[in-house]
Write the structure tokens for this entry.
Amino acid sequence: MGTSCSDFDLKKYLPEKTIVINIALNKYLQEQYPPLLYKAMRYSIFAGGKRLRPFLVLEGARVCGGDEKKVMPTACALEYIHTYSLIHDDLPAMDNDDYRRGRLTSHKKFGEDVAILAGDALLTEAFGLLAANAAVKGIKIEQVLNVITLVSGCAGGPGMIGGQLIDTRQSSDSSQEKISAKKQALTYIHNHKTVALIKASLLAGAILAKASSRQLKALTVYAEKIGLSFQIMDDVLDVIGNKKKLGKTGSDRQNKKLTYVSLYGLEWSQKEAAQLIAEAKKAITTFGRKKYILAALADYIVEREY
Amino acid sequence: MGTSCSDFDLKKYLPEKTIVINIALNKYLQEQYPPLLYKAMRYSIFAGGKRLRPFLVLEGARVCGGDEKKVMPTACALEYIHTYSLIHDDLPAMDNDDYRRGRLTSHKKFGEDVAILAGDALLTEAFGLLAANAAVKGIKIEQVLNVITLVSGCAGGPGMIGGQLIDTRQSSDSSQEKISAKKQALTYIHNHKTVALIKASLLAGAILAKASSRQLKALTVYAEKIGLSFQIMDDVLDVIGNKKKLGKTGSDRQNKKLTYVSLYGLEWSQKEAAQLIAEAKKAITTFGRKKYILAALADYIVEREY
């Protein structure tokens, strides 16, 4: 909003965008019948998330010359999908987490049956919201369909769900000879569980803004780098971070999950995260002056405290 | 396929269509990485289902003058969604069923984590398959988007998932004064849990075949009538049916679920099912000679033994 590169403060800009995104989410996700279902859907949607994925949809559109306001339904749809994945990941059969961001997880609050269904409903209605973006003036219907195809792939078996399956089923066996297999599994998990949806978010916004293939390529590289860096920093913060700030109970360690820190050590992990961020920033030079928000976001990932 | 009204035998026609649908499903749902996920997805997709929903997609297109072959991705997508709903409904937190159609349910075979994820993946990839129908020559992209919106609504919170939530949360309290509330709940459950997706199937095929609003209206009434009749007959067969043929363990009664038979009695239920079928057949007179397959299907619902 008229912000120039030099005086840009991401820590002020992000909360402003969060408010705008929350207003849109509140508009789209109104309570319907059955009330318990929508109460559970809204409980998880409004659980204090950072709105990174919708933010990336808006930003993907903006850097490619599009209008952020015109991709808001798609931005919110990506948050629906992210939220459904958290609800299902927290289930007893998966990560078995009682708390997330300091609040009871959906199944602890509403019961497992409602949590499963609230997740299912968010996923199902996300695609309706993606389709609804076609009603916005200036958005081409062909691009909306391309976004639906993209999101289905990135969120589905070849993407996020595949990553979660390997994550939930990887062995916590600690024998030395399997270390390379573990490293391979960990990279697969994060490239799919986290990176795929971050990539889908950026590209969805860009596609709706009629991005060139060169722009899409740059955003793909950027997404892959910041996504992996984000995940490495999550592992780092799980070890050194403030438990209260993170609002998690350190279940990654309790469950003996693979983490970058456990496989590569703390120092290597922090260096790798910083290196990835440098590469991410290099990839977006094609956007010229417009790149400053994405560049600041990349820096923020390695500098954040929770 | 050149079959005329007079010599039409649905019991020969349905298995032929099932083969065609299974070939298409096998083409779309190829094993990918991670293998365990796709093994679970294929296990449930190829569990001997009757393929009613994809059949209705094809038939919705055919009666409206469309080409069945051109709506096959959408037909298979509806089977993905039906299958995901069965996998999640069978989970311990929901109906807690160990067997379906005489085979172990997904969570008994693969574990709860994999079952949840296989369901999620089928739902997610269903929307990709709906979008893929736009690549078929002669299919209009606007209609594909309309179908995605329709399916998202019918399968989501206002539709199938809402029905399942009321089903899983309705009280098995047997006090007399609440009988009217129970009847209301039961109607809601079936109109949403079963009817919504049957309606979505017929209308999806019809929309892709560029149906008139009069044709869509006729198919809506037909779907509502046969859907409810189908569900009533399910309750009837749960009581009088052959356990072996049904391949279920009678869990509806074990769980003290609301059923038409328990609320209205066996005789009333059978009469009501027949009455609904008569009304369904009346609704499709607008299709003239082409209606014979839908008419035979309606009859089949009350005449079936399992």
Remarks:
- Residues 156 and 162 of chain A are 7 Å apart (CA to CA).
- The mean pLDDT of chain A is 91.
